[in-house]
From TrEMBL:
Pathway: Cell wall biogenesis; peptidoglycan biosynthesis
Keyword ATP-binding: yes
Protein name: UDP-N-acetylmuramoylalanine--D-glutamate ligase
Lineage: Bacteria, Pseudomonadati, Pseudomonadota, Gammaproteobacteria, Pseudomonadales
Main location (coarse class): cytoplasm
Organism: Pseudohongiella acticola
Length: 454
C-alpha cells in the first residue's frame, strides 16, 4: 500500500487558468487540496492568492514528497505525464487525473467534444452559435481561447446549461479516462507537438481518447485519423467533401452549377453562401452541421449561423487593405498543417503572390510539407523567432528569405516587398512563446504593426 492510498487531499500541479479552475472546484466542495508549480511566478498566482488567502502552495519545483502524499494528482495540460516527478508518483500508485476527467464526472447536460490538429475553435464556436440561435443555454470552453470561453470546471459554476461544447487538446485528453460525450469527433490530424510526443502514433493515441464512452461518434471521411481505433458503441455519423451516403451523413453535391452542403439527399445551402471562406472552412461547416444535428438543432438555425459567422480572430483574419495589399492575421497557425491551409486559403483570394511571416518554436515538427505551397504561392518568407534558422535551411532557394528580430520589423519588411494585388500573411507554423505571451498576443502585435503602416 502506498502513502497516497491513506490520503484524501488533491495536489493540483500547475497554476495557470486550468489549475486555478481546479482550485475553485475543490474549494467550492470543501475538499482539501494543495497547489504546486515548478515556476516561482506562475500566471494565475495573483488571482489564486486573492481568492484563497492562506491556501497551501509550493513554488519553484515539483516536490516528490508532496506528489507521493497526494490522494490524487490533478495535472494541468501543460505538464506531461512523462515529467520525471509525475512519472515516479504514477509508478508508486498515485492516481492522476485532469480537469476534463473531473468535469465528465460532474456534468449532467449533454457534451459535444471536439478535437483535431486544426479547425477545433471554429467548429466549436459555430456549434455554440447554432445552439444560441435556438435559445439553447449553451456553455463553451475547454481549450478554447477568448472571452466567451472558460476552463471546463468553471463552466459548472456558470449557471444552468442545456448543452456544453468543449474544444479539447491532446494534452487535456491524456488524463481523460472516460469523457462520455454525447457526440465526439477528431476533425483531422497533422504533425504537431512532437516536442512532447515520441511519435505521431503517441499524439494520435491521445486524440483517440475523446471517443471513450461517447454515445455518438462523428467521422471525417476525408481523414482516416478520424476513425476510432476501437469499436465505439452508439450511432456513427460522417461528413466529407464527397456526396453523403446516409440520411444523417453530410457532404457536398452539385446542383444547377452550384456546390451545395447536403445532409443525405437534402440540400441545405449553397457553398458560396457561407460567410467563412476557404475549402477548409467548408469542412468545418459540414462538421458543425453534423454535430448540431446530432443534438437536435434544426437545420434552419444552423444554416442561419453559417450565413452570418465570418470567422474568429487570429484565424486567416483579413485586417486591412493598404495600397492594394491585403494583410491577413493567422497567428493561430501554430503547426504546419494550419499554415498549409492558411497559405492555400489566402492564395485562393489573392490575384498576386504571398509574403509569408513565419517562425517561432517549431515543436520539433517536420516543415517539409510546406515546400510545395511555398514554391507555388509564396515569393518571400520573413522569418522570426527561435527556429528561424531551421526554416531557412529547409526553404533554401525555394523562396526569397528575409530575417526580422521583431514583429514590427517583419511587417515592415513584408510591406516593402508587397506589390498591389499581393497579400501579406502571418501564419507562423510555430508556437509563440519565444517572443510572445501566446498566439493571441502575437496576433495583436501583428495587427498593431499592420495598423501602423502608412
Amino acid at each position: 500500500m502506498t502513502q497516497a492510498m491513506n490520503n484524501t487531499h488533491a495536489v493540483i500541479v500547475g497554476l495557470g487558468k486550468t489549475g486555478l479552475s481546479c482550485a475553485r472546484y475543490f474549494h467550492a466542495r470543501g475538499r482539501p487540496f494543495k497547489v504546486i508549480d515548478s515556476r516561482f511566478s506562475p500566471p494565475s498566482l495573483a488571482e489564486f492568492e486573492t481568492e484563497f488567502p492562506g491556501q497551501q502552495i509550493e513554488l519553484g519545483g515539483f516536490s516528490q514528497q508532496s506528489l507521493l502524499q497526494a490522494g490524487e494528482i490533478v495535472l494541468s495540460p501543460g505538464i506531461s505525464l512523462q515529467t520525471p516527478e509525475i512519472a515516479h508518483a504514477i509508478s508508486q500508485g498515485v492516481p492522476v487525473t485532469g480537469d476534463i476527467d473531473i468535469f465528465s464526472r460532474e456534468v449532467t447536460a449533454p457534451v459535444i467534444a471536439v478535437t483535431g490538429s486544426n479547425g477545433k475553435s471554429t467548429v466549436v464556436t459555430l456549434v455554440a452559435e447554432m445552439a444560441r440561435q435556438m435559445g439553447i443555454r449553451v456553455a463553451v470552453g475547454g481549450n478554447l481561447d477568448g472571452r466567451a470561453s472558460m476552463p471546463a470546471l468553471d463552466l459548472l459554476h456558470s449557471g444552468e446549461r442545456d448543452l456544453y461544447v468543449l474544444e479539447l487538446s491532446s494534452f487535456q485528453l491524456e488524463t481523460t479516462s472516460s469523457l462520455n460525450a454525447e457526440i465526439a469527433v477528431i476533425l483531422n490530424l497533422s504533425e504537431d507537438h512532437l516536442d512532447r510526443y515520441a511519435s505521431m502514433q503517441d499524439y494520435a493515441a491521445a486524440k483517440q481518447r475523446i471517443y471513450k464512452g461517447a454515445r455518438q461518434v462523428l467521422i471525417n471521411r476525408n481523414d482516416p485519423a478520424s476513425e476510432p481505433w476501437e469499436t465505439a458503441a452508439g450511432q456513427h455519423w460522417s461528413y466529407g467533401f464527397d456526396q453523403a451516403a446516409g440520411d444523417h451523413d453530410y457532404g457536398l453535391s452539385l446542383k444547377d452549377g452550384d456546390s451545395w452542403l447536403m445532409r443525405g439527399s437534402n440540400h441545405l445551402m449553397k457553398v458560396r453562401e457561407l460567410a467563412l471562406v476557404g475549402r477548409h472552412n467548408v469542412s468545418n461547416a459540414l462538421a458543425a452541421l453534423a454535430l448540431g444535428h446530432a443534438v437536435g438543432i434544426p437545420d434552419a438555425a444552423m444554416v442561419t449561423t453559417l450565413r452570418e459567422f465570418s470567422g474568429l480572430p487570429h484565424r486567416c483574419q483579413l485586417l486591412r487593405n493598404l495600397r492594394g495589399v491585403d494583410y491577413f492575421n493567422d497567428s493561430k497557425g501554430t503547426n504546419v498543417g494550419a499554415t498549409l491551409v492558411a497559405i492555400e486559403s489566402v492564395a485562393e483570394r489573392t490575384r498576386g503572390e504571398l509574403i509569408l511571416i513565419a517562425g517561432g518554436i517549431g515543436k520539433d515538427a517536420d516543415f517539409s510539407p510546406l515546400l510545395p505551397a511555398l514554391e507555388q504561392y509564396v515569393k518571400r518568407v520573413v522569418l522570426i523567432g527561435r527556429d528561424a534558422d531551421k526554416l531557412a535551411r529547409l526553404i533554401g532557394s525555394r523562396a526569397d528569405i528575409m530575417r526580422a528580430t521583431s514583429m514590427e520589423e517583419a511587417v515592415a519588411e513584408a510591406a516593402s516587398s508587397a506589390l498591389s494585388g499581393d497579400a501579406v500573411l502571418l501564419s507562423p507554423a510555430c508556437a509563440s512563446f519565444d517572443m510572445f505571451k501566446d498566439f493571441a498576443h502575437r496576433g495583436r502585435v501583428f495587427a498593431a504593426a499592420v495598423e501602423a503602416l502608412t
